[in-house]
Specification:
The complex is a heterodimer of chains A (about 140) and B (about 120). Chain A is an all-alpha fold and about 140 residues long. Chain A has eight helices and no strands. In chain A, helix 2 runs antiparallel to helix 4 and helix 2 packs across helix 6. Chain B is mainly β and about 120 residues long. Helices cover about 0% and strands about 40% of the residues of chain B. In chain B, the strands form two sheets. In chain B, strands 2-1-11-10-7-8 form a six-stranded antiparallel beta sheet, with no helix packed on it. A five-stranded mixed beta sheet of chain B has the order 4-3-5-6-9, with no helix packed on it. Chain B is globular, with a radius of gyration of 14 Å. Chain B starts with 11 loop residues before the first strand and ends with a strand. The chains are: A mainly alpha (about 140), B mainly beta (about 120). At the A-B interface, helix 4, helix 5 and helix 7 of A face strand 11 of B.
């Protein structure tokens, strides 16, 4: 397993790029998850591969489900969705529980927070793709 | 005689957005009268208004309560109304007439995935 964990800042930068590439003009859970899945040799990548599921396979499923956005520009910037804001708050709380500060939120905090929001489309896709999300949460919280 | 599977008339309906720019938004609707419907579309007049999804038509789809439960109907929208295919990797299935909708079953209008969270 890789020794260093990606920081939230690094993941957010990737997520914004992914959102722009998909013409979405917002930052959703789907972009956060794609940012976790599309970077090889990360801790999250390794955890998912241990369940014999390809991160690329899941990323492709997510991209197929959310599709590409329209060219219409309805607002400026890339606002967070309501659920993204909830997930970032949960990740922040998880870091605080481990006596880490905002700057030390990392990929496992984010993965845990995404999995804890069970009603999202992303968690539904992970289940249907055959991932055991409870096991994933247990490994991510160690 | 009552139909065999008739449900009690619901008074409330909760709809949740589970993807897209409004992901995480809940719509709690109070239902009145005998014609129990919930309209979905981009116009503000809809019960579930999605002004931020440019792929949603002004009057896109409607949920109607029947003796068999909720059913979803497309209102001749520009981009269609979809449900998930049985095969996860297969394209979403377009609704041509109407389709029964169960609690927790995702359907899509425009780029927005939606579920009926509950009703009572």
């Amino acid at each position: 397993m890789p020794s260093s964990l990606r920081t939230l800042t690094e993941i957010l930068i990737d997520a914004r790029k992914i959102s722009s590439q998909l013409n979405h003009r917002y930052l959703g859970v789907e972009h956060l998850m794609l940012a976790l899945l599309r970077t090889p040799n990360t801790v999250v990548h390794t955890l998912i591969q241990k369940q014999s599921v390809s991160p690329d396979y899941i990323a492709n499923l997510i991209e197929q489900k959310i599709g590409v956005g329209s060219a219409s520009i309805l607002w400026s910037g890339l606002p967070y969705t309501p659920r993204t804001q909830v997930i970032l708050n949960i990740a922040h709380d998880l870091a605080l529980e481990s006596e880490r500060c905002y700057n030390d939120i990392h990929e496992l905090d984010l993965l845990l927070a995404i999995l804890m929001e069970k009603d999202s489309l992303i968690v539904r896709i992970l289940h249907r793709a055959g991932l055991d999300t409870e096991s994933l949460m247990n490994h991510a919280s160690v | 005689m009552q139909p065999r599977h008739q449900h009690a008339l619901p008074k409330q309906l909760t709809i949740e957005i589970i993807s897209g720019v409004d992901d995480g938004t809940l719509f709690r609707l109070e239902l009145q009268g005998s014609s129990l419907t919930a309209t979905l579309g981009r116009d503000q007049e809809n019960d579930v208004s999605l002004p931020n999804d440019a792929c949603v038509s002004r009057e896109h789809a409607v949920l109607t309560w029947t003796t068999q439960g909720w059913r979803l109907e497309d209102c001749q929208s520009r981009n269609g109304t979809f449900i998930e295919a049985d095969d996860l990797s297969a394209p979403d299935v377009s609704i041509t007439t109407f389709h029964p909708v169960l609690v927790g079953m995702p359907f899509r209008i425009g780029k927005t995935w939606i579920i009926v969270r509950n009703y009572a």
